[in-house]
Amino acid sequence: MQSEQLSKEAKVELRFHSHYNPVREAERFVQTCIGSKKPGIVIVMGPGKNYIQAAIANMLPQTSIYSLQPSSIFSDTDGKDGSSWNPESPFSLRQFLRAALLNDRAAAGVAILEWEPVMAAFPETSARIRNELTRSLATSASDRATVSYWARKWLRNSLNFSLNIKTSSLLNFQESPILLAAAGPGLNDAIPAIKRNIGKASIWALASAVPALLFAGIKPELILATDPGFWNSVHLRHGLGMGIPYAIPPSVCAPWSSFPEATAIAPLDTGLLFENLVLAKTGALFTKALAFGTAAGTALSLALNTTTGPVILFGLDFASQGIISHAKPYAFDVLPMVHENRLSSMHSIRYGESIERYPEKNGDWRYSRAFSAYAQEISISEKDRSRVVRVTHSPIETSGLPGSGIAEMEELVLPHKKPLPIINMSIKMHTDRKACPGELLQSLSDMARLDIENSLEGKKCPAYDTTLVLKALCPGESARFLAKLARGEAEPEDARYTVEILEKNIASWKKDFN
After folding, report:
1. Bridge partner residues of 268 (DSSP)
2. Local structure of 394: helix, strand or coil
3. Between 248 and which of 252, 406, 440, 489 could a Cys-Cys bridge form, CB atoms 3.0 to 4.6 Å apart?
4. 244, 265 in Cβ contact below 8 A?
5. What 8-state DSSP symbol labels residue 289?
6. pLDDT digits (tens, 9 = 90+) for 17-34
7. 3-state secondary structure at position 360
8. DSSP 3-state assignment of 299?
């Protein structure tokens, strides 16, 4: 095997690049693939020797270039700056692509080039590269769309949080197990197992799962939510007035006027700029948690950091069981009844919604690519993997969880370890914080303006936080500026115009929160 690899190394230029003028060959290839386009990022699959990367750098000096090599025989030509991956790299292909696509130059577009002579020589690894790149591009596009869509809501919710939070609490560190309930259809089957372990474990619930637990006579000890959308406020109303603490980030959409005065709130910091600033400004106690596309991922990260015991997940199905997409009862069960008429029964409405949301089928279960992507996004560290059990019969596997994630619910019996009270410490917040939103908005304006000036001077992309502020406060006007900045084409007047719009909108927001 070693001699075969040496033989390949000896023939690499002869087999994969022009023997006479590989530089000119690479220039023609790049010109044909990219033409007059000016993408912010170029990813080259199987570039082999460094000719293609050099041609791109000469043609597009502002572009970030990343290489995916299907064999380590090209490692001597790889850059040492983290811009190239091969099968012997110390990081996974998924990690490499995630880091590459998080580059802010993606605002100017991403171009994909494939050098077929190299990719064809290593078909198995090349197929893996293509599949993972396709998946990562879809995930990255979804992430960018999520930020663009929700940035404004994240900011508004965070400012509302600064005005309305009355108490802030910290969670007690536990040694006992945590049972975490999500609202998948499998939760109903798991109710007996949860009941058997009341008093032996802390019972946590995503807000959407609370009605099913309460209906079964199970009162969760903590309710969690992270969704910034309006409908989340409907889920959060369940459990109010029952003395159950809530773990929520400032960016969540919450029905603040309905919260009783004594409701214990355990604020979460998921790393979002708006959350950081609000928590610092209000002086609220908070607990760090990881951000995911689904509240279940954030809840799992919080649970793993709150106990040394096992974490058991129920109802985390990421699929519909027949036409049943959620545990029963569910906050929006009534909607099909409202829209029912003589031509469209409640059953047919539910069936149509199930087919639309979960188009793929696997036995009794239906699933979708979107929910499967959410499942793959959730991951846990190697050291915590043995502590997590996902109790479900869903065919959708969750990345990072042990085995297939299937467990027999009726066999689940936890060791008796009486859990501590959920709340460890609680403080009452200041009652008069009317100036807080205006001060926070001004801080965001000052930070963004300074970073825009520095980015223009240094001909570089602004920090992620600045991009977030612009997408929240002037999304339409800033999009063109960010794209031009990513290509190195932005002029001072572009920056001045963007800053003017930003400050105008800041003034409008201040009036709204006055």
Report:
1. 287
2. coil
3. 252
4. no
5. -
6. 888 899 999 999 999 999
7. strand
8. helix
